[in-house]
From TrEMBL:
It comes from Dankookia rubra. SUPFAM superfamilies: RmlC-like cupins. Transmembrane segments: none annotated. The lineage of its organism: Bacteria, Pseudomonadati, Pseudomonadota, Alphaproteobacteria, Acetobacterales. Residues 1-27 are annotated as: Disordered. Residues 115-168 form the Cupin type-2 domain. This is Cupin domain-containing protein.
Amino acid sequence: MASRRGRMGGQIRTRPAVAQRRPAGAREIRLPPPAAGVAFPDRCADTAGGCSMDGSVPGAARPGFKLKITKKADSPLVAGRRRFFKYRDLGVADATDGAVRAQVMEAVTGMTEPTGWHVHHCQAQFIYVLKGWVTLEFEDGSQHRMEAGDSGLIPGEMKHNEIATSDDVEILELSVPGPMGTTPCEPPPGMG
């Protein structure tokens, strides 16, 4: 097998050219060249060749962040801010020194009443529906039914109200930064 140097300076093994036949009717596909201004560096700054495509060095210090693997069996559901939900802390806040919090919310029963208008004190709350559905309304007047596979980013301090869920809803919730306070608030004007 022959070898040559790639764009990043590393060895690329190549096989000897072999005449290949295309099936009848098949056409050759050619990729366009990179967009103007896109540069491919010949070498990364790490002379040992141990850097990634973005120039970062694997193994470089990540202050305050630690590897955290959480097994479902090791993170029991606990009571939280809503009595119709149980919450499972995934240990992300500890692993990131509070930069991010992650938890799974699971329905104990279907939502028996809306949460009421409230805000979260954080930069943002991200939700991803794992199972079932949830319907939320927001201060801008929009209402969204989110089903399994749907996600949403709610900016911190944005007024919202969870108005209904399926009996089996499960939601992955992340907040940035990790500590997230919740305060009830008045409904937006005209949305009482």
